[in-house]
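ok so for the tutorial part 2 we go from a plain amino acid sequence to predicted structure tokens. step 1 is just haveing the sequence, like this:
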Amino acid sequence: MLPLSEGILNAQVLISSSNGTPDPSAMLEIQSTNKGLLIPRLKTADRQSISNPAPGLLVFDSELNSFFLYGKGKWNDLSTSSEIWSQNSTSVYLSNSNLNLGVGTFNPTGKFVIKADPLKNPNDPLFEIQDETGEPIFVVTSEGARVYVKEFGVKGTSGGFAVGRYGIAKDKGAGDLFFVDHDSTRVYTDGGAKGASGGFAVGRYGIAKDKTGFYFYTGIDSTRVYATDAMKGASGGFAVGRYGIAKGIETYSFYTAKDSTRVYSDPNVKGASGGFAVGRYGIAKNSSGYYTHITQNNAFIGYSAGFKTTSGIDNIFIGKNAGIQNTLGSNNVYIGNYTGSNALGSNATGNLFIGNQAGSAETGSNKLYINNGLSDPNTALIYGDFVSGSEKVFLNGNLRFNRGTNTITLPTVRGITNEVLIMGPGGTTGWENVNNLVTIPPQYQAPTIEVTFEQSFTFDDADNIGTLIVKSEGFEGIRVDLPLVEKNIGRIIRVKNARKQGPVLVFPQTPDAIENLKTPPLSIEQGETFAFQAGLDKQSGETVWFIVDYTSESLENVTSGIIKVTPVDYDFNTDPDGPRVSTLILSGGNQNVLLPTSSLYPNRTLIIKNGQEGKSTIYAEGSDTIEGVSSFSLNSGKETITIQTDGNGNWFILNHYLP
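step 2 — the prediction. this is what the tokens look like for a chain of 659 residues:
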């Protein structure tokens, strides 16, 4: 025991059974060759009851037989794996099964993610599986993945490279079994492969075997399927579907290249399963021609369809012997067996034949035949001519329209000049002179101008007055009564106050209203002109005289203007009609308006009316102002402002109407 007096010992300490000096880097060093350091031993409850343990405090838990180090606010067991990893007698695993594990990344997006190092060689492995000798079997790099198969000694159904349980590729010699690169995909099989699972299979029974070469080959220029002469049974050769078999002797059975797709069949094939089939029972057989021939220039489907075509292009022939005589003709469409088949004219173009034997005897071009059986222009159900300037269609038969129990039959004879087709009782039809059926309306008469000096004036529903000019004498108001809207929908009436003094008072008839006027009459002052149009307010259902124009003799450049209605923002400077617009009606609401440049239009007057609802804002162009500010807002529906410019950048408000 080393006795210590009270106070602080300010020196390095060495505890040893012999003389010596402590290591310069240690405050306390214990030296011994046959004894150890015994850390305080506490029971679990005593360890956990230590008050405010200092970080770095070390004790030995005598109940758990483990060292515990206090740090990061808790006791850490030093005798077990870290918190991240756990282990048992056979495995090491993540303690939290919900965590993702990342190698080369701080943010793995899957259960186990390996990210390549951009500074490493692209061929350096990210993940590698080796055999017992250290040779790679499966390698993943940043450039791709590779599978290696031993050259010799592979045993069992698991040998080689397999896609699916039984699709196995085996090899006894050196080289690839399954190889993929940028220009080809290749599958090699052993010539000695036996059984239904041998070779390369697409589907359970579609088997390709070879002793000397390929059966299925894909390269940069073609895809080829080969079959041997000795193949037997419904499963032999290359099959699309169970019974669609293609067999060949010295050439291809199914051949695909960049310019065509061809299917060949043996002329000696017998039975329902022979030839080429699309679907179970759709059989195509051939001895001297082909059945389906599709290229970028033509499409022929059917026995010998288009068989003699040489340089003709853009033809579609469907049916047995359809267009068989065609050689140079182009832009023909033949649908049906023997369509265009007997025509001697091999250069016909632009024909459309539909139906069995339709147009089979036609030698011309640009013809239309819709018929079943041999026919000519006078016997075909429908015959037509597409020649430009002479287009026509003939119907050789009756044309009927059925509606319920009624049948409408068109006449079989042609009408003459000025006759039209009419229908009578029971669906009967006939020709009738148009002069007996149509009443020609009287010639249009332009609305007239009426000038009145009377003390009142009433419009009549039957008059043709478009403009009323009031010149009555006196100071009192002159009454003008508009006609009923219901009988004058769309009618436009202008009323001008040309009096020396006094207003003109305009009244609608009951139940009509004047737009935005709560209580009649509308007062027209001296020099003012209002234009009204009769219509129906679809929102309220009321009959209304709408105010569609307003002018005043005291305001220049207004009478020559036009009305503009827009549902969107409007710019006087970009609209081609902008210089002529005098009245702008905003029909959409919540719109912006940009005024024209003041200096370009001295004394110009504009009327701007807000839409049904919403707030619209009028902006002055550039440095121009509206009564000293850059903008003016119309805050309520149908609010209207009349403004005029002095040509010096100022717009003045002449009238502001609040409904």
